[in-house]
Amino acid sequence: MLTGSELLAKVKELGDVGKSEIVRSCGYVSTKKDGAERLNFTAFYEALLEAKGVELGVSGRMGKGGRKLSYVATVQGNGNLLVGKAYTAMLDLKPGDEFEIKLGRKQIRLVPAGADDDEE
Q1: What is the DSSP letter of 32?
Q2: Which of 101, 104, 105 is nearest to 113 (CA)?
């Protein structure tokens, strides 16, 4: 699959051919289980926009389904406070990462274990 300047050059070179042929020629094709060809238009257009310098869904601004993150958490009925996957993905947190819980006046701070309290 072509990306960046190679993708832009190929699209320009192909000119007025059909959209399907452009996607196919740029390598955005996969094979279905039944052996049929599948054109990956979404991946093609995302790569094309990225090659043109347009950022979609800037990391940390969008959650699942394109919803904006609210940066608000609600205590659940069982007393748990859940930090969602979108937030942990923004911080590149992995299963097993440990945090110290710092309680302040009406606030909870999570500090990575072993980090200075002032680091962010």
Answers
A1: -
A2: 101
CA distance 100 to 30: 46
Helix (H, G, I), strand (E, B) or coil at 29: strand
Q: How would you write 43-112 as a 3-class SS string? A: HHHHHHHHHCCCCCCCCCCECHHHCECCCCCCECCCCCECCCHHHHHHCCCCCCCCEEEEEECCEEEEEE
pTM across the whole model: 0.47
pLDDT tens track for 24-73:
999 999 988 898 899 999 989 988 988 888 776 555 444 455 567 778 88
